[in-house]
Design goal:
Nitrilase/N-carbamoyl-D-aminoacid amidohydrolase; six-stranded mixed β-sheet
Amino acid sequence: MTHSLARSLVLAGASGLFLPLSFPNYDLGLMAWIALVPLHWALDGKSKQQAFWIGWLCGTIAFTGMMAWVVTAMTTYGKVPLVISYGIMLLLTAYLGLYVGLYSAGAVWCRTLIPRYGLFAVPCLWVSLELIRTYALSGMPWGLLGYSQYRTIEVIQIADHMGVYGVSFLIVLVNVALAELLSWLMPLLRGFRPAKLPWELVAMTALLVVLSWEYGTRTLSGAPFSDIPRSSISVGVVQPNVDQAVKWDTAYREETLARFDRLTGQLGRATDLVIWPEAATPFVFEHEPVYQLQLIALANRAQAPILFGSPAVRYYPDRHPYLLNSAYLLAPDGQLLGRYDKHHLVPFGEYIPLKSSLLFFLDKLVEGIGDFEAGPGPTILTVTPQPQAAAAGTSGSSPRPVKFGVAICYEVIFPDLVRQFAANGAEFLVTITNDAWFGRSAAPSQHFAMVVFRSVENHLAFARAANTGISGFIDPFGRIVEATPIFTEQTARGTMQVWRPHTFYSRHGDVFAYGCVIICLLLVLFSYFRTKGPEPDTVAATPV
């Protein structure tokens, strides 16, 4: 191994170690702004092929550090042997590492294609690959770079136009500019004459960072939304901390319902909506009349509608049954006010892709109660606040119904999916989940951090109810109002802002990300026509 290659591998490994530190549970968000600098130094003087393998190593290390919780889910709840669990995790992280490999090869290609200005397109390449990762093979947008900044509220407000991808773009641009600036400074410090300062890249980066910060500060002041009517609703979330090992054990049904009853009672009667977690009922709600009555009585005592998760059973035309992962809204009088069926399922967790043909020999990696089918799509639910909780109305007026959307567990990591609830008229958002599968890993915190961005993208408040945590509330600008510890039994109540701001992102979606894809495609076309060139003229030889 040459000294140059060894140096590159060490630098790539350093970036691979720095990236996980940017995310929960480490929460060193500032690290993200320099994490890719060593990788870019590692690519100096390398071919596209070499760059790909260097980047793949970096990405595999990074995602392994970020997603070690996969092993916990498989060994503890899927009963998969430890060695096999590590093997499956490495297959997953090696796959995700391919995107960093493609980015690295693309960065070298951009520099070669347009020597001084090609690096301006490198952040577009990163965003394009994040967008592809969001949808390819059912989608796995876990650990998008922008999520590392979920606590840097001023910076992430640009997500209301560009989504989380806009924050990723800015972070990569800063990394590229720093790598170039430091590479320019190093010869100067050693007494050599450096190459020409990449002032265009540095100036553009500084300008975009300042503009993003200024936009965030102005947005947080509320000035752009001062003319939008707003009210509020009182919401309570229940975190029962039911052990996953006994969740579906019929012997624990009464104990589980008693726990929900007791915790719901702690919220008091001034609550407009009570939220329980995903699959909260230890039974199929529609098929258990006795337990249905218990639930109705519980809602009646709470004097508030209860949103709870429960499987629903439906039938194919041949009468073969299948399951839906559903959220029910139950009124205090027993009326069912609505139901939402999860429509983006977890591959290998809730269903097996291609099970009827290619993967017929596989079973789900986590134990549950069966395979699920996807629901029809985003459904808006409606709740009417109690009169005393109605805000911003005239004295004695009846409170108006309030619309909201529910994302179940895994769905909340998909920006466009959540956006569709906002586009359909939701005035606040809810997510219910069961993060018990993750154990005491970083995954619950990483999962919660993504909800911050869904709030900012649509400027809608979010309530989150999780079986074992993290539960809590996030305001329309991504500020965490309350977040419970994991694996505790408790409740939380908050007053959530209700409005319809209709951000650019909620109206138009991932326009920015697709714009980055178009820029990359234009560069490919430019490269194609540039290398093709004009064909040489041929002159026929004539005999003398």
